[in-house]
Amino acid sequence: MGELFFHLLRSRPAIAKVGGRLITGAGGILVLLATLAAAYAPVDSQQFVIGYRAHILQQTLYMIECGLILFLFVFAACFRLTWGRATLGIGLGRGISSSVHLATWAVMANGGLPHNRYLLDFLNMATYHVCVLIWFYYLLVPQKVATTSAVPLPENNLDIWNRELERLLQQ
Fold first, then answer.
1. Dist CA 157 CA 92 (whole Å)
2. Around 66, how many Cα atoms within 13 Å sit in the side-chain half-sphere?
3. Are 33 and 68 in contact (CB under 8 A)?
4. Res 39 pLDDT > 90
5. In terms of C-beta density within 10 A (0-12 exposed, 13-18 middle, 19 or more buried), how is residue 76 classed?
6. Residue spans per domain, the chain
7. What are the backbone angles phi and psi of residue 89, rounded to the nearest 5°?
8. What is the pTM (predicted TM-score) of this model?
9. Are 83 and 91 in contact (CB under 8 A)?
10. Each residue of 137-149: pLDDT tens digit?
11. 5: Cα separation from own chain's centroid
12. Residue 23 scores a pLDDT above 90
């Protein structure tokens, strides 16, 4: 997430320095919140203890990742920063992947689909593959360049446009 942030702000080193501190702070707060969520999670005695702790750890990691991606998109929107093509693709793919993984872990944690949990595994796997396709698209498909007309506009059209613009400005 830090690399995405620095690629987003590489043309503005002063903002990158302050933003680096902001994303570090946001990450620290998210780690604290995730730790609290893991500490107060109810313990299910029917599950294996190791598997349960791994489940909580993965869920908190997805919480942190979703929070950091959300922070990154909100920060870019607030400061009206333009995304590079590759940076946007990677951020979008990671955001989709971590959001779906977090949602499926939440469904599993609340006892959803107890006999068909393999469906959630397939959903996670399909989401990851879709995200890989998103990454391929943003990294490998060249960006479309706006084409300009090779034929210059006739002079008389420019005169008409100029006259109409002057008329509109006088009103």
1. 43
2. 16
3. no
4. no
5. buried
6. 2-170
7. -65, -45
8. 0.69
9. yes
10. 999 988 877 666 6
11. 11
12. no
